[in-house]
């Protein structure tokens, strides 16, 4: 009994220590900084100018927003620990992953090693040192059989990628400074120096090539810049536990790309609809993983989440 109380008190004090430290200027480590979201995070953190930034990737080097990226492979346990000791971050925003569902399906051991075991190592280090960890999870931890999932709804991933993310979430939730941000489909122009699905689709539309998108698969998409800003605001807010980070609107990829085509003055007739049953899918895909974001709205009541049209207009002009 006394032992349990001591453990609880230790956790409370550790939580308070984390809160005090994050009010001051922080050292922030972004994993996956060469990726789509990581590049936006680096950009937005530098713009906010409040922190000392450390950027990591697996192998991509070069600079993001003027800062050098260091290659640190999350699957190499001893290299990771010494890099963490050297970097000594107050906060880790963990955006590194094998994020392409197809890559996890075809190389599941690698997907597990990065998405689960890599996260386990980061969580263990942050937990031991009393540091904060924000983990970027995904809406596809849900089975998609209904709409507007809440944070405490049961997960049931149908994609191998979703299974790795669902397995990693509790590893982060169990440490005092852990926050799991379940993110919906992200869209917008790439800052990563390599094309996102969105860039590729737009390039084809610009070239006058028709593109097909599912009209029967629903998400609550959010643009990269707003997603990055939201994660930074959550870091400042000291939020813990689980929070859904997504847009306000539930749309199919077909509707998203039609609206994008209109804003960007491309021919919306080139955006064509198909259904999941028309495609030969290697894995079943969840039909509707729209996320309820009431908790996000209550944590950050003044957070601006622009419509698809406004977000694209801001990102492309
Ligand atoms: N994009 C979306 O629509 C979306 C939606 C929901 C959730 N998310 C989540 O958000 C996060 C970022 O996604 P993203 O689309 O930006 O991913 P991404 O563009 O595929 O970038 C992945 C990043 O992870 C790094 N990485 C891969 N394997 C690694 C390893 N073994 N060790 C260290 N770093 C490694 C990559 O480094 P290299 O460049 O060197 O390979 C890259 O920086 C992920 O956790 C993803 O699951 C994304």
Plain-language structure description:
By secondary structure, this protein is α/β, with parallel strands linked by helices. It has a single domain, classed as Rossmann fold. The chain contains 11 helices and 14 strands. The strands form 4 sheets. An 8-stranded mixed beta sheet has the order 3-4-2-1-5-6-7-12, sandwiched between helices. A two-stranded parallel ribbon has the order 8-11. Strand 1 (26-31), helix 2 (36-48) and strand 2 (51-57) form a beta-alpha-beta unit. Helix 5 (108-129) packs parallel to helix 6 (160-173). The longest helix is centred in the N-terminal third of the chain and has 22 residues, at 2-23. The protein is globular. The protein starts with a helix and ends with a helix. Residues 1-24 have low confidence and may be disordered. The structure holds NADP nicotinamide-adenine-dinucleotide phosphate. NADP nicotinamide-adenine-dinucleotide phosphate (NAP) is lined by residues 31-38, 57-60, 73-75, 95-99, 114, 118, 136, 138, 183, 185-186, 192.
Residues in β-strands, percent: 15-25%
CATH 4th-level superfamily: NAD(P)-binding Rossmann-like Domain
Q: Please count the beta strands (DSSP E, at least 2 residues each).
A: 14
Order of helices and strands: HEHEEEHEHHEHEEHEEEHEEHEHH
Number of helices: 11
Mean pLDDT: 91
Work out the oligomeric state of the chains in this entry: single chain
Summarize the structure.
This protein has about 325 residues and is of the alpha/beta class. The protein has eleven helices and 14 strands.
């Amino acid at each position: 009994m006394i032992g349990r109380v001591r453990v609880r008190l230790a956790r409370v004090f550790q939580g308070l220590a984390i809160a005090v430290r994050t009010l001051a200027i922080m050292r922030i480590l972004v994993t996956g900084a060469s990726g789509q979201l990581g590049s936006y995070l680096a950009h937005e953190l530098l713009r906010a100018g409040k922190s000392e930034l450390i950027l990591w990737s697996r192998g991509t080097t070069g600079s993001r927003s003027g800062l050098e990226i260091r290659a640190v492979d999350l699957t190499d346990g001893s290299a990771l620990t010494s890099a963490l000791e050297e970097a000594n971050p107050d906060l880790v925003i963990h955006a590194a992953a094998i994020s392409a569902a197809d890559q996890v399906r075809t190389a599941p051991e690698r997907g597990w090693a990065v998405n689960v075991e890599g996260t386990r190592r980061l969580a263990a280090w942050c937990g031991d040192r009393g540091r904060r960890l924000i983990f970027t999870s995904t809406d596809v931890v849900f089975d998609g059989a209904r709409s507007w999932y809440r944070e405490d709804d049961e997960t049931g991933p149908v994609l191998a990628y979703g299974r790795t993310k669902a397995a990693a979430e509790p590893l982060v939730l169990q440490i005092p400074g852990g926050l799991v941000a379940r993110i919906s489909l992200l869209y917008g122009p790439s800052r990563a120096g390599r094309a996102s699905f969105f860039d590729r689709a737009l390039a084809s539309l610009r070239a006058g090539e028709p593109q097909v998108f599912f009209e029967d698969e629903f998400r609550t998409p959010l643009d990269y810049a707003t997603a990055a800003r939201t994660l930074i605001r959550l870091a400042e807010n000291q939020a813990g536990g689980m929070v859904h980070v997504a847009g306000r609107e539930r749309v199919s990829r077909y509707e998203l790309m039609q609206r994008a085509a209109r804003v960007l003055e491309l021919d919306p007739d080139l955006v064509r609809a198909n259904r999941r049953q028309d495609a030969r899918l290697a894995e079943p895909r969840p039909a509707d993983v729209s996320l309820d974001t009431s908790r996000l709205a209550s944590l950050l009541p003044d957070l601006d989440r622009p419509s698809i049209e406004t977000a694209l207009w801001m990102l492309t002009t």
